[in-house]
Amino acid sequence: MLSSTRSSLLRHINTELRSSLPIPSLLSHFCLPPSPAYHLSFIQIQRRYRAEFAPRNVTRRKAHKGRVPIRIGGSTKGTTIVFGDYGLRVKDGVRLSSQQLTAAHWAIRRKIKSVKGSRLWMRVFPDIPVTSKGNESRMGKGKGAFEYWACRVPKDKIVFEIGGGGIRKEVAKEALRLAGDKLPVTTEFVERATKENNISLQS
């Protein structure tokens, strides 16, 4: 009986997580002593509420698949560091999902949060809806259902930049390495040398 009541309480906390009433008070409100498993359950609930990147407003619910752009004619748009001191650059054109970008974003934040005044910039954003249909399904009957948000990233595009707070190069390189491990593409660590040029270092 106690376990079923506790599970219903966790479901209540799951729906009312943003309530001003703290969770220990909720436990006392239901006349239940806080158990050692409460902390683990609360961490799992927090992870569930770590929302992925997604656009707030959309004009098209579904979109064509499209292709990753290939820049010709010597264009260098988005290939140099603009905001921070260090950056993460992709070596090949790729389509990155919202889940992958969110995982890389949090990997960087966890690493640089100890550096006071450090900042993080994300130079891409997943705003393209990706749909899918089941395997071996018959043709017709419209486009597949929405599955996730994604973005098309061309070759040599800077994805993340970090800087500020006097962050050391070793910390920045490790943070961006952890982020690169979350992405399904080869990346490299770059740093700002001058206003005109960037020095690239193979990670």
TrEMBL record:
CDD domains the record matches: Ribosomal_L16_L10e (cd01433)
Entry's SUPFAM superfamilies? Ribosomal protein L16p/L10e
**Gene3D superfamilies from the xrefs?**
Ribosomal protein L10e/L16
Gene Ontology molecular-function annotations: rRNA binding; structural constituent of ribosome
The leader peptide range reads none
GO biological processes: mitochondrial translation
Name the Pfam families for this protein: Ribosomal_L16
GO CC terms of this entry: mitochondrial large ribosomal subunit
Q: Which InterPro entries match?
A: Ribosomal_uL16 (IPR047873), Ribosomal_uL16_bact-type (IPR000114), Ribosomal_uL16_CS (IPR020798), Ribosomal_uL16_dom (IPR016180), Ribosomal_uL16_sf (IPR036920)
Q: Does the keyword Ribonucleoprotein apply?
A: yes
Report keywords, A-Z.
Ribonucleoprotein, Ribosomal protein
Q: Which family does it belong to?
A: Belongs to the universal ribosomal protein uL16 family.
What is the official name of this protein in its record? Answer: 8911_t:CDS:1
